[in-house]
Amino acid sequence: MTERATDNYESGGSQEGPDFFIQTPQENEGVGELSPRRRLVEAELRRAKEKLSKAIIHDISSFDLWLRQTKGPLEFIVGYYITKPDSGIEPIPQEESLPRLRGHRQTMAQIGLENLPPEFTLIDARLGSIDTYFEEQEKLKRGEPKTILTDYAQAVDLFTPRLIPQKDIDDIREEEILGGLRRLGYAFTPNSEQSVRMALAVYHKGNQLKSKESIEYNYWRSAKRYRHQLSQAIGQELSSVKYDIVWKDADAFWKGYERVEEGGNYLWLNENERHMGEYDHAIVETYALHEDLHMAQASLIASEIRGRRLDPAVGIVPSIGPDAYLLEGLAQTVGDLAEYDMTPDTKLGIGLYRLEKRALANGIQYVEGGATIDEVAHDLRKYIPLKDIDEIRKLLREATTKPFERAYMIVYGISDYEFCQLRQKFGNGMKNVLLRELVTKLRTRDQIMRPTLNFEPLLGYEVGS
Length: 465
Description:
Layout: E1 22-23, E2 39-40, H1 42-71, E3 78-81, H2 94-111, H3 119-141, H4 149-156, H5 166-183, H6 193-207, H7 212-234, E4 244-248, E5 256-261, E6 264-270, H8 281-306, E7 316-318, H9 323-337, H10 344-368, H11 373-380, H12 389-401, H13 403-426, H14 428-437, H15 445-449
Parallel strand pairs: 4-6
Antiparallel strand pairs: 1-2, 3-7, 5-6
């Protein structure tokens, strides 16, 4: 997944105004030959776009390098280097990087997003998200109040969070968790939370994977199974998708973190005490399905860039911003959209993951709305049965106080819910739209929900939520 795109680039932000690529109408030209406004010249527009693309790649990569060098390897802003920056880039500090990124947004506005390929709408939103995210960090350092969730999520994720209908969450618990336990032969009393937790504990004890070797073995076995099915579903060869598992000890909410880096592709698995005891067949098979989709998608987008069907700048994917909606939503629902033949363990694992993420999405909104973390944690205990109450409190605290977690953790449940709603409404039609199109094209939520028609009314939200 290599695409060098910053050769011979000298960065300086938006140094040239619109006159660089716009030609003024001449007085002696006929009225029918030109519009009353200055017209864009195709060759100059193309050169302006290429210069802008290289500048964006260079400046985000240089900022990311500075973050990693000054704040540590777990502090970064680029999640996927699908497009590779030049090897000789130098770190650029935050106080210089952010104005440069703002300058690139100004250049896009001068050119007009309507005059650029569709992916520049996403690229523009990414730059705005990065700016908002670091501004939020600075606000908190100054002791100022955090931005309200609706405004912050809209600015960073490009959507306004809404409450997932409670009936939907209860149905997931009944159909995917209780139904999954029944299919696996476990006995329990459905109306007793303690009985359900006990059945899950028995499952976990009998299926726990205690060593890194056993976790990795079962991960790769499942990833191979589901990648083959993905390849069949989208009609593309995926045998060239390669990455390695690397273990990290991070006191963080994530269990797996895909990294497409300059020097290779890696899946970070978390060995922190918050996670190491949770790995079992259900969890590992679910992460194999989910994370392998991320890696396959990165490879497919790289192919689109090499084929000049996407601009290289789209291949610098920030770790925070509007991409999360599509990336996480598709990874969580790909088994449903592609109608995978999933094992009973995978089905149970997906149900547990889905139930936790949707319940957390609502819980985050309740806390942000004024409820206490303690009362919300107790309400969520029924829907997050594998974690103790202290861990649920910790997740809620992280998701409502830390800028990265506030922007990211709410995305999982909402994107999963909305993708599933569209599949239910459109059936196999969404398989073609979401898998054959969006697996190779990164989009904002708006570009997904309003391609030509407005899909918003089909999402099943309660009026006023």
